[in-house]
Amino acid sequence: AVEALLRVPIERHLQGRRVAIVVDALDEGVSIAEERLTWMHRCWQNRMARLVCLHLRRLPEGVAVVATSRAAAAGGGYEYLEHLMLSRDAEAVTRRAVEALIRPADAYAALRGALRGEGGGSEAVVAEVERRGRGSMVFCRVVREVVERAPSAVGVAERVPAGVGAAYRAYLEALRGELGRAGCARLVELVRVLAAAREPLSISRLMRCGFADAAEVVRGAGFLFRVSPEFKVLAFHKTVLDFFTDRAAAGEEFFADPALGHRVLFAAIARELPRDGSGAGASPSAFALRHALAHGFAGGSAPGLARVVGGLEFWCACYKAGLGEAVLYDLLGAEDERGAVTAGDEADGACGDEASLPAILRDAKRFFTRYNVELARDPDMIWLRAHDSPDECWFFRQVCERGPPPSGRLLYKPSAVWTPELMAIRGHDGAVYSVAFSVDGKTVASGSDDKTVRLWDAATGEEKA
């Protein structure tokens, strides 16, 4: 598309002219700030940053790319742009802070119209809105909505909200009279899911998540949310979700915890996914396959996550849908098994094994990193590769439960990926020259050049004496 729509026309029709391409709102190219990921992973998931780095930078000389982004936005992409473009001998990337936008005349005219019936102080209110919002059209629009919903809330300049967050709070407080506390609570439940989603959710998807009243809740939220012609729920502006997910700004009543939204999404997705050997969920949607792991991990190792991570049927479906590599990025983005991913799922009966989630996660990272390219070409090879894995691999044990092995398999299984090392026991100050197990195998004795003999618990590695 870049070749046909940009490079060729520029070379043919705009030779000798300088061309500027504006990429607005670069920070919105990634739909969720994955705090688990490094800035490199986060920026790589930003599609707009990738477009600029991998394609627009190849345009002819004389083409300048101007990208805008909120300075504090996670995943804005600036670091990645600078890293990639400077490392490839491209022209220097410069960053300039823009303190204020051009005055949005139409927005302020609409605010004056809303303030007309509030006495003679409308100009003072408009001036205060412009000062506090520093010319922000979004802030001006939110204040206008507050005025229209509760005229007395912003009748004089002193009552103008201190910022966009305070303006959203004032609007919701005005809305509480119409929705009631139960209606506001239901709105917050919906926002949790919308804030957690990695792409706009359709009404039908929200209904699968338990929101049969999604359309009604969206209508009750006024201008904050709307339903697009494609029946997807969209926020008025990115700052709406920023407000709801900021506990300090929203307060306890309106705070929407995205972690709870991730759990709701994962629970709904898990019902679609195939279960190994059960035949259930034979045709999961691309949405379910693409986002299952991300929501499972972001939800704090949600129940059932081990079954998904360790499910051969799930991974086979991902690769058949052409999503294997993208899902693998989500897997690799999960923190190390000793980090935030806990063993809270190890008792999950659906796994049919005592292995904990950290152990399954470790094997999954090794298995799919090693065979990703091959599985992208032939997804059904996953069954043979599982048989070819070392006996202690989770996927080998899973595939053996499905039935007899294929006619051919590896007699020698290389241990380069699955190391035989179970743990490293450290404590001696010198080289260790002798090691022996006790008769019952529960204790390890070691002799060292530091002139000590130590006893260790063989199961945990803890020093006993």
Structure description:
This protein has 465 residues and is mostly helical. The protein contains 20 helices and seven strands. The chain has helices spanning 2-13, 39-44, 47-54, 78-86, 105-115, 122-133, 137-149, 164-196, 203-208, 214-220, 238-244, 247-254, 258-270, 286-298, 305-309, 312-320, 324-333, 357-377, 381-388, 394-400; strands at residues 19-23, 63-67, 225-227, 233-235, 432-437, 443-448, 453-457. The strands form three sheets. The protein has a three-stranded antiparallel sheet, with no helix packed on it. A two-stranded parallel ribbon has the order 1-2. Strand 3 (225-227) and strand 4 form a beta hairpin. Helix 3 packs parallel to helix 4 (78-86), helix 5 (105-115) runs antiparallel to helix 6 and helix 5 packs parallel to helix 7 (137-149). The radius of gyration is 28 Å and the shape is extended. Mean pLDDT is 77; it is low at 31-37 and 336-355.
Put simply, the count of helices is 20
Gyration radius (Cα, Å) is: 28 Å
Structural class: mainly alpha
What is the number of beta strands?
7
Strand order of the largest sheet: 5-6-7
Low-confidence stretches: 31-37, 336-355
> Roughly how much helix do the residues carry, as a percent range?
40-55%
| Overall geometry | extended
| Straight-line N-to-C gap | 69 Å
% residues in beta strands: 5-15%
Biggest sheet: strands, sense, closure?
3 strands, antiparallel
Order of helices and strands: HEHHEHHHHHHHEEHHHHHHHHHHEEE
Mean pLDDT: 77
Oligomeric state of this protein: single chain
